[in-house]
Structure formats: C-alpha cells, structure tokens
Amino acid sequence: MSAVRDEALVRLLTLESETGALLDCALHEPAAGDVASTPVVIHLHGKGGNFYTGPCRFVPLLTRGQDVAHLSINFDCHDLGYIPYYLHADAEGGRVRGGMWERIAEGWQAVAAAVAFARERGHRRIFLSGHSAGGFYAADYAAGHGPLDGVILLSPVVTFQSFLRTWFPDRSALEATAERARDMVDTGVGHYLIPLCAPYFGISAESLLERVQLPADHLEQRLRRIDCPILFLWGEAESRHQLWGEIYDRLESPVKTRLTIPGAGHHYSGAEQRVADAVVAFVNAPAG
Q1: Does the pLDDT at position 55 exceed 60?
Q2: Distance between CA 164 and CA 169 in Å, rounded?
Q3: pLDDT of residue 138
Q4: Mapping DSSP to helix (H, G, I), strand (E, B) and coil, where does residue 43 land?
Q5: Residue 1, helix vs strand vs coil
Q6: What is the pLDDT of residue 92?
Q7: Residue 122: closest CA among 58, 35, 42
Q8: Which of 1, 102, 152, 220 is deepest in the core (most CB within 10 A)?
C-alpha cells in the first residue's frame, strides 16, 4: 500500500525530442529542497522496456527520502511495437513505432531532450543512468554532447550486433537480408518490418542496416571519450560478467567505480535495493 501512495506523488510529463517524437516520462522529486542544489538522475531503459520498468522504476521508489531527483524517460523505441497516442496526419502517416523500429543513431536525441528539461528546471548536477541498451545510449550521449556530472552504466549493451548472429547463423543469409534492407530503404520503405524467428520477431530495414554497419567496438570508442566519473555495475551471474570486467579495466576515466553484485542477473531480481543504494551513493560522492 505504501508503494501505491508513493507512486501517486510522481509527476507524469511528456517531452519532445528533436526527431518530433513525444516521450512519456516520470519525474520523482524530493518533497522539499532547492532544485538547484538537488542532483537529478536521468534513467534510460533497455530494449523493449519503458520508463516504468526495471531500474527506471525501482531506483526512484527505493530511494525516496533521499535528496536526489529522478527523471525516468521513454525512448521512442520503448516496448516493441505501439501506435502513438498522438497520431496525426503527418508526413509519415503516423507510422507505428517501438523497439522493432529502433534507430540507434537517434537515441542521443531523446537523452538530449531529458537533459535540456533538467537544466531548464534548474538542476545544476545531472547524471545519466542507463540499463542494458540504455547504458549504451548513456555512454553515446556522454561522449559527445555537453558536460555531465557522472554516468552510471548498468549492465550495458556492448554491441548491437550480437543478435545478428542469433537471427542469421549463416553469414550469407545476413548479407542477403542486408542487401534486401538496403533496397527497401532506397525505395522509401525502410520502416517496413523484416520477419525474424528469434527475439523481437521483426526489425525494420533501417534498424537492421544500422546494426550491420555499427562498429563492433562502438561502445568502447565512446567510453574513451567520457571525461566525467563513471559507475559500472553488473550482476556476477550475467553471461557478460568477464567481458564487462575487461572493458572496465581498459577504461581511462580518472574517476571510475566498479560494482559487481554476487548472484544477480540482468534485471537484478532480489538485489534492487543494493542497486538503488549504489546509484545514490555514486551521485552523492564528493566530486573528484
């Protein structure tokens, strides 16, 4: 019952990305305090998620009473497929959106809308916290767009190409499908779906081409350009446990923190409070 009362205090709002997408968000703020002196954590969900699932939801709720604000946002690719409630007669005909239409190159623009809102609201200290694919986008934004006070990577996606091997075990099949996708984009139907027989079960031609063309080491390239403190957190039961450790060891950031949670999987079931406490501790750590 207490959780329901807490949730009733959350402010729901909608931001507009530079792409024209409307992004639903939840804003959690302390009951009292000066906005300018209150740090804000912007939470970014993973593939197929949204602003009210995973760390986007449990971190703000489990840290109520702390002098930290939270803004959990939807990417334009939240969930897998949905018809926007703001359908109208535009150039795209109000096409369906969602994770199957994910545009990797546009992810940073949703983050930019959230950062701009936080700054306009008066927050002087801004942190990004991204889970899974959200971690990828947090790093992507932090590496090339304006100053931040810290970046929190929660089990970040290392590459968007891993599913290509699942979808197309035969390299020739991938090459043939990629060529088909190029033809679709060239003829103006790049938003049409290509059926798949594994997770997500479909992907737009535009999104497939982005995955094929993105460098496999894109995340590490971006991490090298981040000049603010980094918290890198993951569960020891995750299959990428060793890989993340190797990536962390190669980070050149002068201020970096690693936290691995024993027994925890990708969604931190049973370890939510520990994750939430780690986020707030990182935000409240003395600068430098």
Answers
A1: yes
A2: 8
A3: 95
A4: strand
A5: coil
A6: 53
A7: 35
A8: 152
Same domain, yes or no, for 86 and 138? yes
Structural domain range at position 190: 173-213
Report CA dihedral (45, 48, 52, 55) to the nearest 10 degrees: -40
Question: Which residues are paired to 97 by β-bridges?
Answer: 82
For residue 183, the 8-state DSSP code is: H
**Nearest residue to 281 (alpha-carbon basis) of 4, 28, 41, 36:** 41
- The stretch 221-247 carries a mean pLDDT of 94
Q: How far apart are CA 11 and CA 74, in angstroms?
A: 14
Alpha carbon distances (Å) from 218 to 38, 195, 222 = 33, 26, 6
Q: What is the pLDDT of residues 96-108, one digit of tens each?
A: 788 899 989 888 9
With CA atoms as reference, report the closest residue to 268 among 129, 159, 67.
129
Kindly state whether residue 166 falls inside one of the protein's structural domains: no
Residue 71: band (very low, low, confident or very high) from pLDDT cuts 50, 70, 90: very high
User: Smallest Cα–Cα separation from 240: which of 141, 143, 136?
Assistant: 136
**Whether residues 256 and 124 fall in one domain:** yes
pTM for the whole structure: 0.92
* 175-187 pLDDT per residue, tens: 999 999 999 999 9
Instruction: Tell me how far apart the terminal alpha carbons of the chain are, to the nearest angstrom.
Output: 40
Are 107 and 193 contained in the same domain?
no
Residues 6+ apart with CB under 8 A from 23: 14, 15, 16, 17, 73, 74, 75, 76, 110, 113, 114
